[in-house]
Amino acid sequence: MTDKANRFVSPDNHLLHLITETNPSLFDEYDLKKSGLCLLDWAAVAVAGSREPCAKILLDHAQQEGGEAQSTLIGTGKCGTARQAALFNGTAAHAHDFDDTYPAIPAHTTVPVASAVWAAAERDGRTGLEIITSVITGIEVICRLGLALCPDHYRRGWHASATLGAIGASAACAKLHGLKGKTIMDALELAACRAAGTKAAFGSMAKPLQLGQAAALGLESADLAQRGFTSSKRVLNAADGFYALHSNDFSDAPLKKPLGGEFHIHGNHFKYHASCFLTHGAIEAAKTFFADNGGHPPTSIKQIHVCGHPELLKVCDNPGPQTGLAAKFSVQFCVALALTGKDTSALSTFGKHLTRDSELRNLMNKTTLEASANLNHEEAEVTFSLKDESTTKIFGEPVSSTEPDEERPAIEAKARSLCEPVVGKEGTSKLIQLFSALQTLDHIPDYSGL
């Protein structure tokens, strides 16, 4: 066996053990509360995204395709097949790039997993606790694989939310289906051999579609494995398998970590700015400067220098975005918004009309970028040089709480802001109540009317 082949001596048993042995007896109150918040956040961004053009196209496609009404297409008042629902809900939930993220990879973990699990659970009549268990399992798989493969996986241009999301979704659905042994690995391998997604799609409809496809692919892979569809055991860890093709940094250490400690869902961060998470540190720094300036537009600024993680420059260096989607991936635009007091949590702020705003354009033209490997993905140091030759340097990082009880009011407020324009106050209250009590439910209520 070659040295390269030796690098991939079977971590399969670790994944199989993780999926098989994760169960509610390992969960503490934090796990249950955090998973409920992640699912509420997912549902809220899906409802809001259901009105976006990409979601409307998928809805039209599903209606033309037809099929049994098995699962809810969230926010539309309609149902489709479970696969259609996973594709639609996963795409809609990422349409605004406002869903939670795991910064260390980085990847959006809840959307591909929850979209797949929820569609299958509606179709198959699963309990709330089974949903939570499957979601925690799927997110754990994404995070462990991400830590095993990154940073090279993401650095190469792979969209980890999609590539790893498909495998995590298949693991979650395998858990929901009660699959065992080799059948679980067949599900993962069927997903891995078809998983895809590139960062080159960022700022377009194709980015959220990649997460919808990951959800649908994960569900389909588990469904096929349950029916006896098999794969090759070489797909993941052979010298020409998924791990080797996707990273030169692969280490199975994260996969070997024993169960029983803190689940990686603890590390999911909720987003309070409707833009790429890489921009959030710079936004927070600019918001601080704006507040320190008395809440007035900073007419005295001569130059803005943003120092961030190298990925910030690769993904979000766009000094002249032309569309609202592209603006979410322009750190120059996001900083300008914050410096002029614009609400970066409002979906309408990231509209095409503001990309032409002369005041924002002026600030964008004054902004320069620098990469620093000493900063995390979500951090930034922003230096403001003023016309009086003084400078101010501000460190920024996203604001979040480590305690679900402390974060719940903010997530519920976010859900109301996103959902009420689409499903009204009553529909929004139903969603909030659903995910507050999910672990106690023996079935999912009929929310097809939402």
From TrEMBL:
Family of this protein: Belongs to the PrpD family.
Signal peptide: none
Gene3D superfamilies, per the entry: 2-methylcitrate dehydratase PrpD (3.30.1330.120)
Domain MmgE/PrpD N-terminal as annotated: residue spans: 33-250
Classification via InterPro entries: MmgE/PrpD_sf (IPR036148), MmgE/PrpD_sf_1 (IPR042183), MmgE/PrpD_sf_2 (IPR042188), MmgE_PrpD (IPR005656), MmgE_PrpD_C (IPR045337), MmgE_PrpD_N (IPR045336)
Limits of the MmgE/PrpD C-terminal domain: 273-432
UniProt-recorded name of the protein: MmgE/PrpD family protein
Species of provenance: marine metagenome
Sample GO molecular function, one term: lyase activity
